[in-house]
Design brief:
19 strands; homodimer; alpha/beta; seven-stranded mixed beta sheet
Chain lengths: 457, 457
């Protein structure tokens, strides 16, 4: 499959993703309308914000211009919160006014499956090609760049505290999926960007991956995608990101026959050749962000074995089952480690892998930490998995984090209760050496992908 | 494999699970100790509670007796919060005093993998057999029967509001897993019982299933187990439960080679013949309770097809992928349904399966409900799956619940955001026709199991 155009680079998308000025066409004072919601989301933007609406002279004290042609400067990025019927004319005005990029929310294009919709989308693509305007959408939720306070979107991505150094760039073709995944921010995951591209008539997920690969604010990329207009563009983009030190976790959606058919209806795009994609392929979308956090925090694996340390026999057994199912090896520790485990743990504990420190460990944190140290020190293990229950003292997590950092190996904390404790989640996410997983399957699927380059056979 | 003894019936376990009186041996005023925690958990018990501790005359104003022999009545159930060394002597006292059952928390038995531990456990089993005392444990967390306010356990199972008619009996060999699963109560799942049996030297999970099958407080059973002393007892117990109208969702743990080895170390038991077990087998423990809730609420499936209705294309595609992977069919609706969908939805929506009602549906609940009605009315569908995002109005859930009830088909709400909204979760759990799932895989795995009896081929 030949590539019709090379992916865009960060410089090509600078005015889209790092705008100094943004114009909102269809700005509205009604907070429930598309234009009102987009305005609310743009209020945090640190750059210059211009409003366009021919029926208003101001909204909330901000001047409103009748058209893009009347703005005081050529806007870097224009957000179009207007119906499909007006979109082409406004895009031409944007290009004429010297705008750099446009985000199109409107639906009714290729996703309808009708010839009219497809033709309308081809006209948008032609405008982008002819004018050099970089176009996101149509039928998209929008884009956010946390560093700039930019949220050029009609849905609000959740705000969160900044945790420098472990930022995930989230790329999702589907806006609803991007929005759903971005909610991980509320439990402490730090996103540098949330980028959705909908029907992708110009900019697509491959272009976003390229741009993030050169963005110093992004440490790892989480990518969800359905189909692409030019599927062959994705593999080189992922390759570029990996080479630039931005590991990618990706989850393809629409891979079943019914899924492919629905993708055709939804965005009229084609499936990528999954075998050609470099990165960590995640089986279930629920684990995508967690896998990306593993990549952002973990560095390269130093050994293919995984040690399991639990405060209960049952959760340890669950872990080795999930490991086996994901193809992750859980070897027995060396004799020196066994000796250290025996010294650290009660006589009725299991000084092996999985290591059951028993419920006593919840009352004797020092024995849990001594066991963690012994397992992390063993050269046959590249990572530690610790199933975590609600009765365990969260302060022990800080000790495990410190040991993991000392040994240069990640400690994956698998939350086993059927109910989250947000404070504990945030504590885990804030640590550079702890990775939170909410399912055992998700944890070992991610570890399998992370360890694949060094897994024997 | 021959069965050495038949499973216990509800009548055999009456004094254990429906005690009029409970004695706590090892009662303590220290809230951090095993005996102190057990006492705190027993405070809500509606029956008569007796305390035993030779070193105290009272705790918190309750009299403390020196031994079980000194109690004012033969206790139905005795909870032993004492070390392994004292356990055999106290069990013999319990039997002599006319107690009916005992719960043994102590560790150090077969789970150590040592001959001494195995022999000590055989002596406990021999006491149970010889005296008729029904024994739970050793190495167990305990049992709870919500209807009696009974929590004979050293760990606290979460309290929750009562939602009559859809109560899950939770049976878990592992106490830690039982505890973790019981946390679903905090998001609105109603448990009639939480029963753990640890090493299962006398009472095992098969016996618990038998007892729940005859308990009017229990509507469906969620069962997690590792290995059994007598694996052949489990299949007839599940058969009995299903015949008695208590559908069972079960998740075997310790099924990999490493898992079986860890089970042998942990509880020294054997794997059951999974193919012989009737019920809904769940692949991932995270979905066990959700699957049991489906069984409790859904009745029998009337058609093998599943319809998907979403407010976004991406989540609908995710759903049909998960359906395909689980072997659930998602057929196209009949022409009458398509006509109704077209009338209900915007022109750019997908009037097919998966049905993408588009983001407009979040602003026009009536179109979402009309689409749900059309899909539920179609005779090719036995269930509706609705991926749910945070921006959707929870009030619409009540409308979907009503339609699902009218059509006698369950509506599975799949929560897509990476962060829970507990109020919405409780609203879903409280409905008799809505079933909450927190992962798409978990939803379709459960639907596949539920529909298996009518799935063609």
């Amino acid at each position: 499959m030949s590539i019709l155009r090379a992916p865009y680079r960060a410089a090509d998308l600078r005015r889209l993703l790092q705008p100094a000025s943004v114009a909102l066409v269809g700005a509205s004072a009604d907070p429930r309308s598309l234009g009102g919601r987009a305005l609310a989301n743009l209020r945090g933007f640190g750059g210059r914000l211009h409003l366009v609406n021919p029926r208003r002279s101001e909204i909330d004290g901000r001047p409103c211009r009748p058209s893009v042609a009347d703005l005081p400067e050529p806007p870097d990025c224009v957000v179009l919160a207007i119906p499909m019927e007006q979109t082409e004319a406004v895009l031409l005005q944007c290009a004429a006014a010297g705008a750099g990029a446009a985000v199109v929310f409107a639906s009714g294009y290729a996703e309808t499956g009708t010839p009219e919709g497809q033709q309308a989308q081809q006209r948008l693509a032609a405008i982008a090609t002819a004018t050099g305007l970089r176009l996101v959408g149509p039928n998209c939720v929008g884009v956010a760049n946390r560093g700039l306070g930019l949220q050029a979107a009609f849905a609000g991505f959740p705000a969160h505290e900044d945790a420098p150094g472990r930022r995930i760039g989230l790329v999702s073709q589907s806006g609803a999926l991007g929005l759903a995944l971005s909610q991980a921010a509320e439990r402490g995951v730090c996103f540098s960007h949330v980028l959705s591209c909908g029907n992708s008539c110009d900019v697509d997920v491959a272009d976003f991956v390229m741009a993030l690969a050169e963005d110093p604010g992004c440490d790892a990329i989480a990518l969800g995608f359905e189909g692409l207009q030019e599927p062959a563009r994705l593999a080189p983009a992922l390759q570029f990101a990996v080479v630039r030190g931005r590991p990618v976790a990706f989850c393809p959606v629409g891979i079943s026959a019914a899924g492919r058919e629905a993708v055709r209806f939804h965005t009229a795009t084609l499936a990528a050749d999954l075998a050609s994609l470099r990165g960590l392929r995640v089986a279930a979308i629920e684990s995508l962000v967690e896998a990306a956090v593993l990549l952002a925090k973990a560095g390269r694996p130093v050994a293919p074995g995984v040690a399991v340390l639990s405060a209960s026999g049952g959760t340890g057994i669950l872990a080795v089952d999930a490991a086996a199912s994901a193809g992750v090896v859980t070897p027995q520790p060396g004799p020196a480690t066994v000796q250290r485990l025996r010294a650290a743990l009660p006589a009725f504990a299991a000084a092996r892998n999985p290591c059951d420190a028993t419920a006593q460990a919840t009352r004797h944190p020092e024995s849990m930490l001594a066991a963690a140290d012994a397992l992390l020190a063993d050269e046959c293990f590249g990572a530690l998995v610790v199933p975590w229950g609600r009765s365990q003292d969260p302060a022990v997590l800080d000790g495990i984090a410190e040991l993991a950092a000392q040994h240069g190996k990640p400690a994956c904390i698998v939350w086993t209760p059927q109910f989250p404790l947000v404070d504990v989640f945030r504590r885990i996410e804030a640590s550079p050496s702890l990775v939170l997983f909410q399912s055992m399957r998700g944890c070992f699927d991610a570890l399998a992908g992370w360890m694949a380059p060094i897994t024997p056979g």
